[in-house]
Amino acid sequence: MTRKRKLFSPVHRFILVLALLVFFFCLVLGLFLENRKTVIQSLEERLSVLTETTAPLKFMVLSREQGTISARFRFYDTGGKELASFEQSWPGGELTLDSIIIPAGTRFLAFPCRIFTDAVAPGEGTVIFDFYDRDGFPAIYDDPSLDETLRHDLEVFFARARTAADYSDDSEPEPGVYGNAVHDLQHLARFEPGVIYTLEYHASGAVEIRE
Known about the structure:
The chain is α+β, with helices and mostly antiparallel strands. It is 26% helix and 36% strand.
């Protein structure tokens, strides 16, 4: 009497299950990457309505004396409408403006986030998001050409910028759909009191300060 041979041995079954798992993993990964690519392309198309250069902030150093530096800051939307302003003094002689730069497809979005000095630690600096926060929307990017979808996109990036600028959190900012945030520091110690300077953000990610 001949014994029937099993069609699949335990080893063969294990290899088959493993191969199926690898196949489905690759399939899901491929769909995810394709969807990510489509999402980024769609985002880039929406962001194309934004100008290549924005000037959301103007400032003037009022004084630098007796170990204290004073300055005035004004915030603007893309059309040059003033959103808010404030004056403040800080201990120290070197003023630093910290911005959050976030990749958005092939361009970058930037958000002024806080001010500190050589005598004030970054975590104890003046947070400035609220001066242009309008119910979660970054008003420095406000423009009549924005539709609701793009406004929502900008709100998402703004929320990520606020999270990335939370110096009280020792952990790395969680990666978002379009990348991680990085910091760009502009030192204002060389700027003369009484002169108005403009902070400019470029779509390339460059940050510039001009008279």
